[in-house]
């Protein structure tokens, strides 16, 4: 049942009531699509100015689709609008180097390395593996790091498959906001990360899982996208949203997020402060979404 007697619509379903303050434009699905549309338009303009007209045209096309499904519901518009932010934002990661070059921003690794020394007293990305040169530990941490790709999609899709729309929409909104913030920071404050500047951590075991991680990074990483760690931001966001909506999954995600955070530093892929910044960003985003879009019942 939908009551429209006040300025805030209240949607009722089998799990309880869910307030959409200010009508459809303020629900989490629309926020996720709005983040995607704004980022596509802004980054598309930068790409066009930088001479990447092909990419800019793709941005314009995806932005048009985003706008078309923003407030529409139906057998086609609903699933496209539901899933588009979840799929599009990870794909946009690959063009961050072009956006950095188009803006002409410079890398800030020297500053981040000073923060690293101030917080940890050492460059953790080079000292952690040297202090713990264990093959089983290395393989576990690298496997945790690789699990990030599952963390992006599995928790929200589990909610989607269960028909838990409130939890799904909140989770996708939180992930979309986290991605928007991370991608924007990468472009205006690019940081290469230790793997571009240092040799492999001394003494790190080179097992098969590490070799897979290095292969994926060689073909799929974006230079300048280290601070804050989007791996950590998305993993922690997913963990906190799952704590609200699917508690058993949250326990698994918490373990995976810890492995990702430590594994990225152990492997020499990130500075320690990258992971702290990603965690802090995630906490702010998740708390903001949960408070901004309250629901009376949790689907666990």
Mean pLDDT: 88
Category from helices, strands and their pairing:
mainly alpha
Which consecutive residue ranges, at least 5 long each, have pLDDT under 50?
Answer: 1-23, 296-300
- Our estimate of the beta-strand percent is under 5%
Task: Please count the beta strands (DSSP E, at least 2 residues each).
Answer: 3
Order of helices and strands: EEEHHHHHHHHHHHHHH
Helix content: 55-70%
Strands ordered across the widest β-sheet: 1-2-3
Main sheet? 3 strands, antiparallel
**What form results from the Cα inertia axes?**
globular
- From the N-terminal CA to the C-terminal CA, the straight-line distance is 23 Å
Rg is: 20 Å
Helical segment count: 14
Describe the structure.
With 300 residues, the chain is mostly helical. Helices cover 69% and strands 4% of the residues. It contains 14 helices and three strands. It has helices spanning 28-49, 53-69, 77-92, 96-103, 109-120, 124-131, 135-146, 148-162, 165-188, 194-197, 208-220, 230-245, 247-266, 272-292; strands spanning 2-3, 9-13, 16-20. Strands 1-2-3 form a three-stranded antiparallel β-sheet, with no helix packed on it. Strand 2 (9-13) and strand 3 (16-20) form a beta hairpin. Helix 7 (135-146) crosses helix 13 and helix 9 (165-188) packs across helix 14 (272-292). The radius of gyration is 20 Å and the shape is globular. It starts with a strand and ends in an 8-residue tail after the last helix. The model is unreliable at 1-23 and 296-300 (pLDDT under 50).
Give short descriptive properties of this protein.
300 residues, disordered C terminus, three-stranded antiparallel beta sheet, disordered N terminus, single chain, 69% helix
